[in-house]
Design goal:
The complex is a heterodimer of chains A (368) and B (284).
Chain A: E1 28-33, E2 36-41, H1 42-64, H2 72-79, H3 85-120, H4 132-145, H5 155-173, H6 182-202, H7 207-218, H8 226-253, H9 257-262, H10 267-289, H11 295-306, H12 314-334, H13 342-360
Antiparallel strand pairs in A: 1-2
Helix pairs in contact in A: 1-3, 1-12, 2-3, 3-8, 3-10, 3-11, 3-12, 4-5, 4-6, 4-10, 5-6, 5-10, 8-10, 11-12, 11-13, 12-13
Chain B: E1 6-14, E2 28-36, E3 41-45, H1 52-59, E4 67-72, E5 75-76, H2 82-86, E6 89-92, H3 104-110, H4 124-136, H5 152-165, E7 170-174, H6 182-197, E8 201-205, H7 209-215, E9 218-223, E10 226-231, H8 233-236, H9 239-246, E11 248-254, E12 260-269
Classes of the chains: A mainly alpha (368), B alpha/beta (284).
Chain lengths: 368, 284
């Protein structure tokens, strides 16, 4: 019990086999300084760096491609403030801000989806499927009707709407995570209810606002810039460390609430913390781009392929969310002469992905 | 005589005040008082809904008693923080769940959680505890295997290893053998007895009266939330007690080691027997 040798590691295996090194997953390293001991995992680190590399490639592609194709050197010159003014304008004023907004949106969705899937222990339990997007949208419409300004001024309303929706789902479905598809059915019902209410209310908006509202509600990054993405970016910076801590605790919740509680966790408090974090992250993404579906599903599921079974890979899911949004937006810009909203592309990617998840996951994982 | 490791003092509780839709068959615990020494193996038996699992969950701090106190080494378990409590008592629930494909070593490692923190993630004390847990449960050679590839008995030993890695003096087991065949039941029960012999106090809920009588230091019989009898199996396991608990007429035999064996008399169900009271019989 109370044998604590705070500093030195690599003590000889005093109790014989098994070797302590193999208690930790492959690739794990322990750093012990005094009474501090931290672990990290090389495999996790490498997979995160690989995702970052792919994001970098996607960002380059996104800067080059579009109505006017630029070469990589033209992009580079524009970033350095050289080259033709038109290219500088295109790169620095239009494409780069838009990419930044997209990265923030995707990161928020990736983190939110990963946390919510972990909490519900259900891969289909993502903010868009549970109606959080719709709740945020409805709240934005109500705020606009109340004269709070245009679509993009009402980010605070989206946070309220998203939180209320998720707390509603939690209240109606009773215990999160222990009842399989119940939470999905309730989320689905709520989604339709909220959508209907939104559509009724939109008819009360002035025509130009209703039209802006409609475009926004499909989900697009058109015309988004740093100013719009800033609140979401700051929110993301604040919430990402929280998400990492919550993800560690969600891992314990996978052993069931009773076991988690007997390991010292407070499941009720964790649920509330996760719900609020997810709601704020989702709402922040909605305020920037409008509701984007399926990113919050694809990112954590893909991340879980890269992670170990007992991990809640929130950081890699965050990165993958950012990647998927940039890819979807770039495809939407080059797909045809008229720009296709990013939300449409995300849905086109996500629909088949969702089917694949349902069709190819092992039987035993379904329902829970 | 030193103080008991676990003292349950006049504990009453009912589910009625709990949330969630579990209020129906509200199993309750009424004015239960029990004590357990260090290294004692206490097995609680009784018909369905007698409150034995509820009592176990109260000791595990999953339900707060309406009245009475639960003392662990003289301290009220509810006065401890969650993490403190988790270093002093461990629970193996009836149907634990694990992420699909998890490695045994990773499962056991998570048992160290109450001893860890953000800047205390993996100490040599953690290594020693996991090693001891694996050795004690004879699961060291299963360490790299995925949990879901193992047999029921092996899996249960791994779950016990996770609880042992918590390094607690009190271990609470809720029907750890209910899903296992005879061979695996014996495998797990022998391990449980070994653990108690090492000084861990164990409180275990069991359905199987024969196994309970075979392994218990103290057999505690509950009915309708109350303790009917508690003591060494040879003293308390009587024909009257079985009738009182299960409404069944039974013979109490003696096995060659002198342990009591319960076998229902043929046609021994009493006429007033309600069907629900008899469905748990597994005496062969």
């Amino acid at each position: 019990m109370s044998r604590m040798s705070p500093s030195v590691e690599q003590a000889a295996p005093s109790l014989g086999l098994p070797d302590a090194a193999s208690f930790l997953p492959a690739g794990s390293r322990v750093v012990r300084i005094g009474s501090l001991s931290m672990t990290f995992n090389l495999h996790d680190l490498i997979s995160a760096l690989l995702i970052l590399l792919v994001i970098l490639l996607a960002v380059c592609a996104s800067l080059m491609l579009g109505s006017t194709h630029l070469s990589l050197s033209q992009v580079w010159q524009a970033i350095l403030g050289e080259g033709s003014p038109a290219h500088q304008l295109l790169t620095m004023q239009i494409r780069l801000p838009r990419i930044a907004a997209g990265l923030v949106v995707g990161a928020c969705l990736g983190a939110a989806g990963c946390l919510l899937q972990g909490l519900a222990r259900n891969r289909l339990a993502t903010p868009d499927i549970l109606g959080v997007h719709q709740g945020a949208t409805l709240a934005v419409v109500i705020a606009m009707l109340a004269g709070a300004g245009s679509v993009l001024d009402t980010w605070w309303a989206a946070i309220i709407g998203a939180s209320a929706t998720l707390l509603g789902v939690l209240a109606f479905s009773g215990r999160f995570g222990s009842n399989g598809y119940r939470i999905l059915v309730i989320g689905l019902g709520l989604t339709y209810l909220l959508r209907a209410m939104t559509e009724v209310l939109v008819t009360y908006l002035p025509l130009h606002e209703a039209s802006a509202m409609y475009t926004w509600s499909i989900g697009t990054l058109l015309g988004r810039d740093y100013a719009i993405a800033a609140p979401a970016f700051f929110g993301l910076c604040l919430l990402l460390p929280v998400a990492v801590v919550l993800a560690r605790q969600l891992t314990l919740l996978q052993f069931g609430e009773d076991t988690a509680a007997s390991l010292g966790l407070n499941p009720e408090r964790l649920k509330i913390a996760v719900v609020l974090t997810v709601a704020v992250l989702t709402a922040l993404s909605v305020t920037v781009s409008g509701p984007i579906n399926f990113i919050a599903l694809m990112a954590p599921v893909t991340a879980s392929f890269l992670a170990r079974p007992d991990q809640t890979p929130v950081l890699r899911s965050t990165l993958l969310g950012a990647l998927f949004v940039i890819v979807a937006d770039t495809i939407g810009r080059i797909y045809s002469d008229v720009e296709t909203p990013m939300g449409v592309i995300a849905t086109m990617m996500g629909g088949p992905f969702l089917l694949a998840v349902i069709l190819f996951q092992p039987q035993s994982r379904q329902g829970n | 005589m030193s103080e008991p490791r676990l003292a349950i003092q006049n504990v009453s509780l009912s589910y009625a005040n709990g949330r969630g839709g579990k209020t129906d068959a509200a199993p309750t615990v009424k004015e239960v008082s029990l004590q357990a020494r260090p290294g004692e193996l206490m097995i609680i038996v009784g018909p369905n809904g007698c409150g034995k699992s509820t009592l176990l969950r109260a000791v595990a701090r999953l339900h707060r008693p309406d009245s009475g106190r639960i003392l662990l080494e003289g301290e009220d378990v509810w006065s401890l923080s969650r993490k403190q409590a988790a270093t002093r008592l461990a629970l193996l629930p009836q149907t634990p769940t694990a992420p699909e494909g998890i490695r045994v070593a990773d499962l056991v490692r998570h048992g160290r959680h109450p001893h860890q923190g953000l800047f205390r993630q993996w100490t040599s004390a953690d290594e020693d505890a996991v090693r001891r847990a694996l050795l004690a449960t004879d699961t060291a050679d299963l360490m790299d295997a995925p949990l879901d590839h193992l047999s029921g008995g092996q899996r249960q030993r791994c779950w016990l290893a996770m609880a042992l890695a918590q390094e607690t003096n009190l271990l609470l087991l809720d029907e750890p053998i209910s899903m296992l065949d005879l061979g695996h039941q014996v495998e797990v029960l022998n391990l449980v007895r070994d653990l108690s012999a090492k000084g861990i106090t164990i409180m275990m809920v069991l359905h199987d009266l024969i196994a309970a009588a075979r392994y218990a230091d103290t057999l505690t019989a509950m009915r309708e939330g109350r303790v009917v009898a508690s003591g060494p199996p040879r003293e308390i396991l009587t024909r009257d007690m079985v009738r009182e608990l299960y409404n069944v007429d039974a013979h109490i035999l003696s096995d060659p080691d002198g342990n009591p064996v319960v076998t229902p008399a043929v046609g021994g169900a009493l006429s007033s027997l309600s069907p629900s009271n008899s469905k748990e019989q597994s005496y062969v």
